[in-house]
From TrEMBL:
Family listed: Belongs to the iron-containing alcohol dehydrogenase family.
CDD domains the record matches: MAR
Domain Alcohol dehydrogenase iron-type/glycerol dehydrogenase GldA, chain residue ranges per copy: 3-143
Swiss-Prot/TrEMBL keywords: NAD, Oxidoreductase
Gene3D superfamilies reported for this sequence: 3.40.50.1970, Dehydroquinate synthase-like - alpha domain
MF term (GO), any: metal ion binding
Organism expressing this protein natively: Subtercola boreus
Listed name of the protein: Maleylacetate reductase
C-alpha cells in the first residue's frame, strides 16, 4: 500500500493512478459527495471512465451488485473511493467480487482504508469478513477534503477512530508497535477534536485528526476487535443506525466495563488522555461528553422494544474480549447506553 498524506495531496491523485498503472478508474461517492466526485473525475482526465454516486451506509448488497455491473460495463480497471467508510466499503465490496484495486481518498476519520475488513448488509443483517483483496492499493489523505465534514460527524467519527485504538490496546493479537500507535492515535485525537469543536476550519487540527485516524485505522486492520465493535455492529446493522454516532454512544460504556480487566490498556488510555492512571474510564467518559456528541441510543431513535434481540446476538458470536461477557452484561451496557446514563462504575 502506498500512502500520501498532507494538505493538497489530492492534487497528486492522477500521479498515484499512473504509478499503479490505472487508466480506467470508476469514481465512487455517496449522493451527498457527488460534486466532489465530479471534481476528482475532472482532475483525473481520461483516467476516469465513470462516476457511481450511490454509496450507502453498511453497503447494501443491491447497491454493491449495481456498482459491480456498472464497473464491468465501463471496463473499469480500478475504483477510486472518495468519502467515508460507506464509500470505501462499497469499493471493498466491488474488489471482493471483481479483484479491482481500490485507491482510497478518505474524507472522514472512520479508518476503513487501512483495513482488509469488508462488510455487506442484506435483509437487515450485516456480514463482515477479512480478505487481503479489499485492502486499498493506495491511500491519499488530504485534510482539506475533511474541511466540509460538519461538526457532529467530525467529532463522532473521531470517537469512532478512538474506539479502534482502545480495542486494539486490549486485543488478543495486540503487539508493542500496535499499542504504541494506538496510544498515539488517542493522544492525537484528544488534542485535535476539542480544537475542531472550537474551530471546524482549523486545518492544522484537521490534519492532526486525520493523522490520528490513520493510526487508529492501522490498529483496526492489525488486530481483532472486542465487545465494543461487536455491540455497534449488531445494533448498527440490524437497526440501521448511524455508524459513528453509535460508536460515540457506546464507547464510554464498554470501556468502563473492560478497563479493570485490561490494566495495560487502561494505563495507555490514561496517558493518552493525560488523566490519572486510575481514572482511565472516567477520563474517557468525560472526554467524550465534553465533545457534545450523541450520548444516548434514544437520541438515535432507538426504542426499548427494539433492543431485546441484541444481548444474545452479541454473545453468540463475540470476537474476543478481555473480560468474560454474559448476556446480562450486554443488556446492562445497552440499557445504560439507551438512556445516556453514566457508564458502570463511573462517577461524576
Ligand atoms: P459515511 O461514510 O457513512 O459518511 C457519512 C455521511 O457523511 C455521508 O453522507 C457522506 O457522504 C458524508 N461525508 C463524508 N465525508 C464528508 C466530508 N468530508 N464532507 C461532507 N460530508 C462528508 O460515514 P463513516 O462513519 O465514515 O463510515 C461508516 C461506515 O463505514 C459504516 O458502514 C461502517 O461499518 C464502515 N466502516 C468500515 C470499516 C472497515 O474496516 N471495514 C472501518 C470503519 C467504518
Amino acid at each position: 500500500m502506498s500512502v500520501s498524506f498532507g494538505a493538497g495531496s489530492v492534487a497528486g491523485l492522477a500521479n498515484v493512478l499512473d504509478a499503479h498503472g490505472i487508466s480506467r478508474a470508476i469514481v465512487l461517492t455517496t449522493p451527498e459527495q457527488e460534486e466532489l466526485g465530479r471534481r476528482i473525475m475532472d482532475s483525473l482526465g481520461d483516467r476516469a471512465v465513470g462516476l457511481y454516486p450511490k454509496a450507502r451506509m453498511h453497503v447494501p448488497t443491491d447497491v454493491a451488485d449495481d456498482a459491480i455491473r456498472q464497473a464491468r460495463e465501463l471496463g473499469a480497471d480500478a475504483c477510486v473511493a472518495v468519502g467515508g467508510g460507506s464509500t470505501i466499503g462499497l469499493g471493498k465490496a466491488i474488489a471482493l467480487r471483481s479483484d479491482l484495486p481500490i485507491i482510497a481518498v478518505p474524507t472522514t476519520y472512520a479508518g476503513s482504508e487501512m483495513t482488509p475488513v469488508w462488510g455487506l448488509t442484506s435483509d437487515g443483517a450485516k456480514k463482515t469478513g477479512r480478505d487481503r483483496r479489499v485492502l486499498p492499493t493506495a491511500v491519499v489523505y488530504d485534510p482539506e477534503l475533511t474541511l466540509t465534514l460538519p461538526l457532529k460527524p467530525s467529532l463522532e467519527s473521531g470517537v469512532n477512530a478512538i474506539a479502534h485504538a482502545v480495542e486494539a490496546l486490549y486485543a488478543p493479537d495486540a503487539s508493542p508497535i500496535i499499542s504504541l500507535m494506538a496510544e498515539e492515535a488517542i493522544r492525537a485525537l484528544r488534542i485535535a477534536l476539542p480544537a475542531l469543536r472550537a474551530d471546524l476550519g482549523d486545518l492544522e487540527a484537521r490534519e492532526h485528526a486525520l493523522y490520528g485516524s490513520w493510526l487508529a485505522g492501522a490498529c483496526l486492520g492489525a488486530t481483532t476487535m472486542g465487545l465494543h465493535h461487536k455491540i455497534c455492529h449488531v445494533l448498527g446493522g440490524t437497526l440501521d443506525l448511524p455508524h459513528a454516532s453509535t460508536h460515540a454512544v457506546l464507547l464510554p460504556h464498554v470501556f468502563a466495563f473492560n478497563a479493570e480487566a485490561a490494566p495495560g490498556a487502561a494505563r495507555a488510555v490514561a496517558r493518552a488522555l493525560d488523566v490519572d492512571v486510575d481514572d482511565a474510564a472516567k477520563g474517557l467518559a468525560s472526554f467524550v461528553t465534553s465533545l457534545g456528541v450523541t450520548s444516548s441510543l434514544r437520541e438515535l431513535g432507538v426504542q426499548e422494544s427494539e433492543i431485546g434481540f441484541a444481548p444474545a446476538a452479541v454473545v453468540e458470536t463475540l470476537y474476543s474480549n478481555p473480560r468474560p461477557v454474559t448476556e446480562a452484561d450486554v443488556e446492562t451496557i445497552i440499557h445504560a447506553a439507551l438512556q445516556g446514563a453514566l457508564p458502570l462504575g463511573v462517577t461524576r
